[in-house]
Amino acid sequence: MHLKPLTLQKRSVGEVVSLYATDVPSATVWLEQSLPYGLTTIIPLVLTPVFLHHFYDLSLSFSLSLVLALVILNSIMAYRQSIFFFRFKILAADRMGLVNEWIQNIRGLKILNWIEGFENKIIKKRREETVNRIHMLTNGQVMNTISSSIMFVLNLAMLGFFIWFYDKSFSKADIISLLWVTTVFLSRPLRQLPWFFTFVFDAWTSFKRLADFLNLENQAEVVKSCARTNESHILEIKNLNLQIAGRELLKNINVDISGGEMIALIGPVGSGKSLLVKSIINETPYTADVFYKEKTSYLSQEHFIMSASLRDNMNFYYQSPPEYDEKIMQHLSQAQFNFELDRVENGLETVIGERGLNLSGGQKQRVSLARQLMEPNQLLILDDPLSAVDISTEKKMIDEFTKFKDRGCSVLLTTQRFTALPHCSRIIFLNNGVIEYDGPSSSFLMNPNYDSFLRGLV
């Protein structure tokens, strides 16, 4: 829960889910099955040679050599089986990641007509799982066959030893008791032995995967000074830089925000707008000479929606009481969420599906915005809040942002909507991780150097 997105960027949601769905149960197998199997397997394997040596003078070196050979054979088979188990975990994680991505983006995939191609990726991964499962079952059957046949081979080896190498008399009763001892004492342990090793190897791989994940650490930001140089500033950043995997993504960023400003952070796709916003909320391992900010409210592009009622989503906990309904309705209205226009028939009792499945992108965006407006801080950071609304709704939302600004607070919003720019008092233009313009919106809109970019926003 405390890991930052950049720390998890090389790990899919499916992999994280599989850690809890697959690896935690596999790790507990060590206690549930491996330990009992080990006790019921190892003790008879040790006691039987001692018994035969004591009562029949059977060479300990001979019997222990047989046991050691069996252990090596079974461990090799078990190791091969554990490889199939490990592949099963990896493939299941990949498939869960693809399915999760498919569910989250189902509407966009339908619009782009990419459903079939994406589903084929899931089917291909499922086929790989099936092939691996066949190999796993085949190897398991071979293990069972060998472990079931070993008793016959072991009994023949024992009889051969007593017939050809034993120099004392050996009666029929001795033969029967010998076969009885080896059969009763060793049949079950020898059947369990390969699976004991399989569970041990499987638990070890799960322990390793869980340890690797739990040992992940966030890269901390490095700031030389956290003290602001101007008392009117609610945000001060001096010489902020961000490098990830050797790539310089943000370079020499300097931003000061005072109370009562509405600022548009704009730039081409991939220019670093979202990275700058994430740096402001301390979600990246940046370096800076000065970094100071007041308490901040943040609305991301990825909206967290619970599978619960609209009331619970606004209060942000399950089965919340209706005592704050009036306040909720007020802030939903501020975010331009209208029950009638948005076709929400049951009001605040309306149940929203997992990850907002029953809401459109614009509705999820406005619910998340309304939630931020319930307890706003001095600085409100909005990452592309206008991307999924029409022009009429956009104008109403900008009016609400203006009211927020007029109360002495500040709004920093990233946007690709040209129509929003004239309403902002200031524009920051970011290109290739560098701020190329920071000043009044009127000067930017009249600057011919940015005509091509502005035309792309129309």
CATH architecture annotation of the largest domain? 3-Layer(aba) Sandwich
How far from one another are the termini?
Answer: 40 Å
Q: Got a strand count?
A: 10
CATH homologous superfamily heading of the largest domain: P-loop containing nucleotide triphosphate hydrolases
Count up the domains: 2
Q: What characteristic shape results from the CA principal axes?
A: elongated
Low-confidence stretches: none
Which tags fit this structure?
2 domains; 6-stranded mixed sheet; ABC transporter transmembrane region fold; 458 residues; alpha/beta; 12 helices; Rossmann fold; elongated; 10 strands; 4-stranded mixed sheet
Structure description:
It is a single chain. By secondary structure, the protein is of the alpha/beta class. Strands 6-7-8-4-9-10 form a 6-stranded mixed sheet, sandwiched between helices. Strands 1-5-2-3 form a 4-stranded mixed sheet, with helices on one face. The chain is about 55% helix and about 15% strand. It folds into 2 domains: about 15-215, ABC transporter transmembrane region fold, CATH 1.20.1560; about 225-455, P-loop containing nucleotide triphosphate hydrolases (Rossmann fold). It has helices at about 15-55, 60-105, 105-110, 115-165, 170-215, 275-280, 310-315, 325-335, 360-375, 390-405, 440-445, 450-455, and strands at about 220-225, 235-245, 245-260, 260-265, 285-295, 295-300, 380-385, 410-415, 425-430, 435-440.
